[in-house]
Design goal:
With 287 residues, this protein is an alpha+beta fold. The chain has a single domain, classed as 4-Layer Sandwich (Metallo-beta-lactamase, Chain A). It is 23% helix and 31% strand. Strands 1, 2, 3, 4, 5, 6, 9 and 10 form an 8-stranded mixed sheet that branches. A 5-stranded mixed sheet has the order 11-12-13-14-15, with helices on one face. Strands 7-8 form a two-stranded antiparallel sheet. A hairpin with a 2-residue loop joins strand 16 and strand 17. It is globular, with a radius of gyration of 18 Å. The chain starts with a strand and ends with a strand.
């Protein structure tokens, strides 16, 4: 199933990188390989040969004639030498996925950034005549005030992670297209933003109150492995303890109300319902 429909809300994945591999010990240094092997539903599409398999994608939402993007992946022509899979990409896959939905960048109305890491903001901008300019000329970009403040200060101190603040965030602010918001902010009818800090200081989730409901969880959870072991935060989390608290809060809410968990990097289709199991959670398998 390539689309998820929740009442009036239609959800489609736009994939930028089909498979991005990270050593398990790099992203989850606290993970115990033997314990993971005992989880029968963690298959090779999630983990194999010590490599965790992730996807990098945006979520395209259509609601009442509006076109909304949640996160914008790695982008094109970005200098990311520390991650060769991200470095100087042509962006064809992502643009093709957007075009397959009958859309052009100018058709996007809203871009919501769950946080400002390089693999979530890349398509915010495009290179035009040697300058980074907003890719989505008719869109308003939404970001947490805390998130922007943190990375703005970090960049001023010379800590511009991967250069993404300079090439994918600051040009949006300079073009007066970035709206900085606080927690508990409504993006649209039945679309509610909530602070879920920890992975980054101002990380936000989007809760959709349509149909059975859904939570677009960004990076509060990177892999289904963290369903079985929700106490494990990634090595890329700014505050691992706070990230765990945010993750457990969201996962418990989703398990309680049977809504869909929709993170950024899960295997296809990218969404799932979950149930409590042992000390954690597991995907709900439909028989």
């Amino acid at each position: 199933m390539s689309k998820l429909e929740l009442g009036e809300l239609q959800i489609t994945a736009l994939t930028d990188i089909e498979r991005f591999d990270v050593p398990l010990t790099t992203i989850f240094p606290e993970a115990k390989s033997d314990a993971i092997k005992n989880i029968t539903w963690i298959g090779p599409e999630i983990l194999s040969s010590g490599l965790l398999h992730l996807k990098i994608r945006s979520w395209l939402l259509r609601l009442n004639g509006q076109v909304i993007l949640i996160d914008t992946c790695v982008g094109a022509h970005k200098d990311r030498p520390n991650w060769q899979d991200w470095h100087q990409r042509d962006g064809v896959n992502w643009l093709s996925a957007l075009a397959a939905e009958g859309l052009k960048p100018d058709d996007v109305d809203v871009v919501m950034c769950t946080h400002l890491h390089a693999d979530h903001v890349g398509w915010n901008t495009k290179l035009l005549n040697g300058r980074w300019v907003p890719t989505f000329q008719n869109a308003r970009y939404i970001c947490s005030k805390d998130e922007y403040g943190y990375w703005s200060e970090a960049a001023a101190l010379g800590d511009d992670k991967h250069g993404s603040f300079s090439d994918s965030v600051l040009p949006i602010m300079e073009a007066n297209k970035m709206e900085l918001v606080d927690s508990d902010w409504d993006l649209g009818p039945g679309l509610h933003l909530e602070m879920t800090p920890g992975h980054s200081p101002g990380h936000m989730c989007l809760k959709a109150k349509h149909g059975q409901g859904a939570v677009f969880a960004g990076d509060i959870i990177h892999s289904p492995i963290q369903l079985a072991f929700p106490e494990i935060s990634s090595a890329f989390c700014n505050d691992p303890v706070q990230a765990r608290e945010s993750r457990l809060k969201i996962l418990n809410e989703i398990a309680n109300d049977d809504s869909f968990l929709i993170p950024a990097h899960f295997p296809n289709p990218g969404w799932m319902q979950i149930d409590r199991h042992d000390e954690g959670f597991m995907p709900r398998f439909v028989v």
